[in-house]
Design brief:
The chain is built from 11 helices and 11 strands. It is an alpha+beta fold and 296 residues long. It has a 6-stranded antiparallel sheet with strand order 2-9-4-7-10-11. Strand 5 and strand 6 form a beta hairpin. The protein is globular and about 60 Å long. The N terminus and C terminus are likely disordered.
C-alpha cells in the first residue's frame, strides 16, 4: 500500500520579480502545519519559550529567542505550540531565492564566501546562537520598518553577513534525512562517506572503511574525527537514524522492517537508540509528522 506524504507544499508570497519577502507578525499561538517550500527562509521568533521547533528529523524546544535559516526546498519544518503560554509571540519571516543556482551565482563571488558557506550548511537547517541573535536583533527590527526595497535588500545582506561571521551556529537535520550532497568535502572524505552511505545497513568494520581511504585503522580514526567531528561509529549511527526517519515519513513500512533495513537486528536496540537521538520513539516520530497535516 502506497503512503501519501501529508506535508503542506507552501505557496509563498514571494514573486519571481521579488528579491525579498518580509512578514512581521504578532500572535498567541502557532497553528500552521508542517510544510516545505523552495524559497530560502530566515525565521526569527521572540517570546515563544516552550515552543517545539521541528526541522527535518531535528526536534528542539526553543527559548525566548530563536533564529533559523533553511535553504532546502525538501526540508520539512514547523514551529508547534508545545508548552508555550505566551500571549504575545513575534515572528519575523524573511524569504528569498537567489544567489546559489547555476543561473544566478551572486553568492559565488569572493566577497560572499562566508555567506555562501552558511547557505550551503543551511540545507540541513541552521540555528544561530543567542549571542548572534542579539547582534542582529536591532537590524531585524529595523528591516521590518524599511519601505524602500533597495535599502531593505542591503540591510538583509548585512544581516546575512553578520550571521555568517558569527560563532555557535549548529545544523539541525541529519545529512541523510536532508539528502544533502558532500561537494564541499575533500575527495578522500567524500569517498569514505559515499561508501558508508551505500553500506550503512551492513556491519561496517573500521578496517574495511579505513581501507577505502588507504589508511591504517588508527590513522583513519584520527582523520575521520578531524573531518567529521565524530568517531566512525557515531557517524554510522547518525546515518542509520537519518535514513530511518526518512523511511518513517516516506513509507508505511513497519517499525520492525525499517529497523532491519537501516542495519539493526534488534528492534529494542533500534527503539532505544532512536529515542536517545531523536527524543521520541519511532512511532511517536511518525505520529508527530502525520498529525494535523494536509496536502495541497
Amino acid at each position: 500500500m502506497s503512503f501519501e506524504r501529508k506535508i503542506l507544499h507552501e505557496l509563498t508570497p514571494l514573486k519571481e520579480t521579488d528579491a525579498l519577502y518580509i512578514a512581521d507578525r504578532h500572535k498567541k499561538e502557532f497553528t500552521y502545519p508542517i510544510h516545505r517550500h523552495k524559497e530560502f527562509e530566515l525565521n526569527f521568533v521572540e517570546g515563544a519559550a516552550g515552543v517545539n521547533r521541528i526541522v527535518g528529523d531535528s526536534r528542539e524546544t526553543i527559548g525566548n529567542y530563536d533564529l533559523v535559516l533553511i535553504t532546502s526546498g525538501d526540508l520539512e519544518h514547523v514551529w508547534e505550540q508545545g508548552d508555550c503560554k505566551s500571549e504575545d509571540i513575534r515572528e519575523i519571516t524573511m524569504q528569498f531565492y537567489f544567489g546559489l543556482d547555476e543561473g544566478d551565482r551572486f553568492f559565488m563571488k569572493t566577497p560572499f564566501e562566508k555567506i555562501r558557506q552558511m547557505l550551503v550548511a543551511a540545507r540541513k537547517g541552521l540555528c544561530f546562537s543567542q549571542h548572534a541573535i542579539m547582534k542582529v536583533y536591532n537590524q531585524l527590527d529595523e528591516l521590518t520598518h524599511t519601505t524602500d526595497r533597495f535599502s531593505a535588500l542591503m540591510q538583509f545582506l548585512e544581516i546575512l553577513n553578520e550571521l555568517a561571521n558569527s560563532e555557535g551556529m549548529h545544523t539541525l537535520a541529519s545529512s541523510s534525512f536532508a539528502k544533502v550532497d558532500m561537494s564541499d568535502d575533500s575527495r578522500q572524505i567524500i569517498n569514505v562517506k559515499n561508501y558508508i552511505a551505500q553500506n550503512y545497513m551492513y556491519d561496517l568494520k573500521l578496517e574495511d572503511v579505513a581501507s577505502v581511504a588507504n589508511m591504517s585503522k588508527s590513522a583513519f580514526s584520527r582523520f575521520f574525527k578531524l573531518h567529521s567531528g565524530r568517531c566512525l561509529s557515531d557517524y554510522v549511527i547518525d546515518v542509520r537514524m537519518g535514513n530511518a526517519a526518512r523511511l518513517l515519513l516516506d513509507t508505511d513500512d513497519t517499525i520492525s522492517n525499517i529497523s532491519f533495513k537501516v542495519g539493526f537486528n534488534n528492534l529494542s536496540n533500534f527503539n532505544r537508540t532512536f529515542r536517545r537521538l531523536k527524543g521520541c520513539t519511532p512511532t511517536e516520530f511518525r505520529q508527530i509528522y502525520r498529525k494535523k497535516k494536509i496536502i495541497i
